[in-house]
Amino acid sequence: MADTPSSGNALVLTSSQLTNVGGRQSNQDALASARQDDLACFVVSDGVGGQEGGEIASNIVVKAVLDRFQQEATFSPRALQAYIDFAVIKLVRRQSEEPRLKDMSATVAALLIDRKNRSVLWAHMGDTRVYHFRGGKVHRVTKDHSLVQQCVDAGHCQPEQLRTHPQRSILCAAVGVAGDGIAEVTQLPEPVQAGDSFLICTDGFWEWIDESEMESAAAAADSAKAWLTGMHAIVEKNGGASKTPRDDCTAFTIYLSTDSSTATLT
């Protein structure tokens, strides 16, 4: 993990990241970020499709989104949709080129930040989440594209079952899966302010830490790195007590402030 500061004439962005292999021989999660002037793009992906296919899929998705961002760094819902669409094209093309990878797919969550205009957009497919915190509390969070989420929405399951239901890994949308599932992209920029923070994470992270624990870790932290370290300790503790195999665990924390030397999580 490492804090990465970014300075400018607007909000200062500081981030930290981690990715750990779970019970598999290889890590099927991927994450990366890129900056262009006052814009920043963060991407997290969780691969599906066997040991090799999942790892390939997540890396294709992350690289494609950031490649397109770096080619055309624009802050708009249309641009963010184009970044995801480009990842879909790249993954489907690889599926057709290598039949052994025809069943691979991946979730995606992408966060696009305009530091100068203090705005954010995000997109996701699957159950990799984007959390927005304000005042140390969960302000907004993406809704999973999963079978269990649909059951929760229909009143057949309780929200807490998103973390425990036996069918929680069945997705209704993912990059590389044919069907009606498409990326969900915010259509209006969300205003951000100094003190706001974000968490982007795969299910191997959020399954083992609830929102109240995320908020408690934020209250005890003074940086993006400290916040992520605190949450990861909770994930390890909660996950270590489980008898089920652990999934790969991947997350970004992002913090916005006006002065990197005095940035704190509030």
From TrEMBL:
Its EC number is 3.1.3.16. InterPro entries: PPM-type-like_dom_sf, PPM-type_phosphatase-like_dom. GO terms for molecular function: protein serine/threonine phosphatase activity. Keywords: Hydrolase. The keyword Transferase does not apply. Residues 10-256 form the PPM-type phosphatase domain. Gene3D superfamilies: PPM-type phosphatase domain. This is PP2C family protein-serine/threonine phosphatase.
